[in-house]
Amino acid sequence: MAGAALALLWSAAAHAQAPESAAPAQAQPGPDGLLPDEMYIEADEVIREDETGRTTAQGNLEIRYNDRTLRADRLVYEEDTGVIRAFGNIVIVNADGSTEYADEAVLDDDMRAGVVLGFAARLSENVKIAAASAARRNDNIQELNRAIYTPCEICAADGTPKKPTWSIAADKVVQDKKRRIVYYRHARFRLFGASVLYLPLFWHADPQAGRSSGFLTPKASFSDRRGFSYEQPYYQVISPSADMIISPQINTKIAPFLNGQVRKRFYSGDVDVRFGYTHARDFDGQGNEIVGTRTDRSYILGRGSFEIDEKWRWGFTAERTSDDLIFDKYEVGRVYVSRGPYVADDRRLISQVYAIRQDERSYFSAAAMTIQGLRPEFAPGDQVARGENDRVFPVIGPLVEGHYELPGMVAGGRLRVHTSAVVLSREQSQFFPEQRLPGIDSARLTGEVDWRRTFTSAAGVRLSPFVNLRADAYRIQDILTGVGSATRKDELGRGLATVGLDLTYPFFKRSGDATIVVEPVVQLAASPDAKQVVIGEDPVTGEPIYLNEDSVAFEFDETTLFRPNKFPGYDLYEDGVRLNVAGRASVLWDDGRRANLLVGRAFRTEENRVFSERSGLRSESSDWIVAADAQPVRGLSMFARARLDSDDFDIHRLEAGANVYNRYGNGFVRYLTDDFDITGRKRENLDLGGEVYVGKNWGVSFYGNRDLNEDAWVIRDLGVFYRDDCIRVDVVYRREDTIIGRLLPSESVSVRLTLATLGGTSDGR
């Protein structure tokens, strides 16, 4: 029957065992348009032999059944036995998208079990499996004989066969989809076609499975600090919503160290906890144990976040360590990353608990937190750095913030209401830590109203008047009087206000294939004299010492130039009459190239000594602010931001960098110089790194961080790597030159291996 197309109910044609009443009346068609157990056959010729119960189909044959599609040159179906025989160029496309190929196949009437010859399959992640023969027991079990497994390409660009970069060959392979495991008997690992390892029994996770227990890629390195180090992570699936990684680190020069991670997902959120533990003596940068008793050494890096409803969520972070240098000594990665809404400075850990409510018009948060400092500190005459004194860090809690924008317009503009409250408890004074004097305890309550309206003229001039009103109430205890450890307390309130106007007037011009935009920006703001919170007097200069818990890390740059109150926190407040001006220019090309430049500064009617010397904002005319970024060609981007002296244009602070990528490699460079950072020291650093590709597969990687102020390298990495579509091998040499506490300069060599489908390192290092 040429060009025949038959749709029939398989249960009727094949005398299915289930009665018709078993089929649900409300069954819906599947993706192929067929109801459950309904089969569609299409072929150039279909022959039905009623006497023998045999159906033969051939010529452009295609069968669809239960979300499976089978194509072949010829097919014979025996109705009595329920056996399907397929011959020639067989292709089976499964419901999950995987594809199987064979020369000849014998299947049951569900196309779920059978035996095939000349078997091959292409699974997810480009995995290929081939075998001389395969036996499919059911949907979950499939056996292959004389098989090979690889995720690598097996054909060159011109279509000719090529040996895969790596593969696993075995006498027998069993794919168990239920257990999500692939077993191998007499397995041989081949690298570029050569056998490099033999295992009588081997298994790994099924690449079609999302999560499966098993060993992860190990990490190996050699350094003069730890000797030879080998870390073997093991991944354990505890339940559909929980898993764990146990990763023991074995070292030849120092005691072993155990890393671990536990993750658990709940209906409303998840918890992720990393930890590490050892029982050992401390050691120096050369791996020499320091005299002393063995003790427990550990760390925890945990987080959790939960949704209460569509507006509320709460969470926590838990970050603590027994040793300030434990992460450096055992090379623990991904330590100083954001795990919650509040983030500590570099080399500091923060533990917090918080609750947040947010909708379209309002935001509310309440939190409490503590901080552990890990930065090394050198006192005059010290040969070894001491750890930070955590007693000078305040315990913060509660910290409450609220914001609400009223619906509709108020006096033609938008009106926002802000609230803030915080309580800080500090055990020791941060000003005289060596004397162990009492630390200041403070509490603040703030209410604020902010109004702004925008007018835009037909010529394009935009005018935005604004008003800000604020009230603060403070209670401060343990204020040092300057006489030994004697203290006093104080309570005060203050009212603050700022009125101002923003004015912008952009000019546009079209030139060739580019758009040029030039925009002058002016901001005028005025505030009555603010009542600053004074907690003491500098014994040398006699200048007042202000309470400043939330604006210590303040930088004057293009992001703060047009803030009516340039202090980011609440304790300090900018008052007086000031004028902030800048010119912005942009060139935007149609092909995506761009360039931007901003030059600006601030003026005030009188000097404001609330700003620090290093801020560049004390005098009547501030330092100059310059910021630029550009993408002149595809694959290259650059940026620079600087603060220049108001009189002689000397650079007080400069940060610049560039990123580049093309078919020859990628890289970056960063430069930073600062006359006085927040610690009062000059800082100058150079940071650079990247990869250069040598040929199609080989490359060289590099990274360096140089302290130009000390004229010394902090870290230097140099590596070589091989990569293709299914493997990457890195060999990296690292030298750390700086002395951190008891850690002397060290050298190490590490090997990083990433195999497609079998994974890379578990912690991203």
Show the helix and strand layout.
Blueprint: E1 4-9, H1 10-13, E2 38-43, E3 45-49, E4 54-65, E5 68-78, E6 83-93, E7 99-108, E8 114-122, E9 128-136, E10 141-150, E11 166-176, E12 181-191, E13 194-205, E14 214-215, E15 219-223, E16 227-231, E17 234-239, E18 242-251, E19 257-265, E20 269-280, E21 295-307, E22 312-321, H2 326-329, E23 348-358, E24 362-373, E25 376-377, E26 386-387, E27 395-405, E28 414-425, E29 441-452, E30 455-456, E31 462-480, E32 487-504, E33 507-511, E34 514-527, E35 534-537, E36 544-546, E37 576-589, E38 594-604, E39 624-633, E40 636-644, E41 651-662, E42 665-674, E43 683-694, E44 698-707, E45 712-723, E46 727-736, E47 746-755
Antiparallel strand pairs: 1-2, 2-4, 3-4, 4-5, 5-6, 6-7, 7-8, 8-9, 9-10, 10-11, 11-12, 12-13, 14-17, 15-16, 15-47, 16-18, 17-18, 18-19, 19-20, 20-21, 21-22, 22-23, 23-24, 24-27, 25-26, 27-28, 28-29, 29-31, 30-31, 31-32, 32-34, 33-34, 34-37, 35-36, 37-38, 38-39, 39-40, 40-41, 41-42, 42-43, ...
Structural account:
The protein is mainly beta. It has 2 helices and 47 strands. The chain has a 26-stranded antiparallel β-barrel. Strands 1, 2, 3, 4, 5, 6, 7, 8, 9, 10, 11, 12 and 13 form a 13-stranded antiparallel β-sheet that branches. A two-stranded antiparallel sheet has the order 25-26. A hairpin with a 3-residue loop joins strand 15 and strand 16. The two termini are 64 Å apart.
